[in-house]
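Journal club prep — side note

Before the paper discussion, L.F. wants everyone to see what a predicted structure for a comparable chain looks like in token form. Sequence:
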Amino acid sequence: MRDKIISTIESYGMLLPGDRVTAAVSGGADSVALLLFLAEMAPQYGIRLAAVHVNHHLRGEESDGDEQFVRQLCQRLQVPLTVAQVDVRARCRATGESMELAARQLRYDAFYRAAKGGKIATAHTQDDAVETLLFHLARGTGLAGMGIPPVRDRVIRPMIGCTRREVEAFLRGRGQPWREDSSNGDLQPSRNRIRHRVLPVLAEAVPGAGENIARFIQLAREDEDYLSAQAEQLLCDSETEPEAWQRGPFLAAHPAVAKRALLMLLRQYGAPVSQRRVEDFLAAVRAGRDWQAAPQLSFRAAGQCFCACAGSRETPYFEVMVDLSAQPEEVRVEYLPGQVLILKKWQMDNFEFFEKKPPEDLKNLIDYDKINRVAKIRQRQPADRYEPRGRGCTKTLKKLFQEAGIRSLARRGSTPVLADEEGILWVEGFGAAARAGVCSTTRICYEIICRPAGGSAPGECGN
């Protein structure tokens, strides 16, 4: 099992020296094995390890016993532990969610809070991936629903290639006990019925079925990665201006790629998604007709293009010139009603003063001597791309918005861009361009601040 975990970590680049990794530990066999492995390997990987346990308070004394077990385990391993207390029933009453979904949402909320921006390691195994695949197939899914991804966002799953049998053998070999969750034997949840009724019959009928399905999941994931990359390229190549795309590339594309691209658009704008809706959307694009995606979002046909229209949320175009040739101490521009951008001049006689500032402050500074004296604050444009300071690569603004989870049309349209004749100098939320960033030779810089008109600006570089 140890070799399988190491292979998975290396294949997906899950751990890097200096990473802060928070292991989610329920007390069950899988999570205990994960914690033991990470605790043993932390010095070799150069990671800072912590743990988080969530008490759902659904099984009375048993839940409290799980918490006490995890506390003692982490104390023995000398792993810092965060314990979160959640009220699943209260969330169900407030949201109408099922108990299973509410518990999952609260659990992951707790994981992200405990991780404090670091990575989260969960103990999903090959068995979990196979169960998930069968569940999704029964409900109707495409390749994107094949199993559980080894890495998603900041969540890593080092044990995704290990079976539950291997996990238990690993723990027995170390004389390490674990907690049994009595709810796992409850056949009411669909997943438990798949685990206890479907999988044993499948394994009996086809020896090695679990391993074969796991290999299929890997192949399907590779296919999905390729098709998704093609879909992203289709969106980039067909975009003619912000929120407008040419129909021609969609007509020429394979349906598997075109559907994924349109699915990405729906998700990008927070519209409801289903296989039927994506097919209807594609039919509308091919026919050159309007299509209503949501009450406040439609895609309108415009000759050889189609464009997203968000009704009252659409943002008016803005472009305001800024003259810095006289080195003004401060420039204030109301680029949209109620929204102000401020450029504040600083003398950098002592660069160490700025180096001690948080990265969020430093990234909003531009070197006066590296920019043209006349710039403009404007809305994003279709071809906009730049290299944010410290990123080491150039990306389109569209890609940066996607990676940051900014899906709203209004949010994208209202994001201010500072540019000169050579291109982008700074973008709200992403910071200064590498070509304009401050360094030890900077003499004069401008700090860029966005805030509501009349509001305060916490975090400015002043004393």
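L.F.'s comment for the group: Residues 455-463 have pLDDT under 50 and may be disordered. Keep this in mind when we get to the figures.
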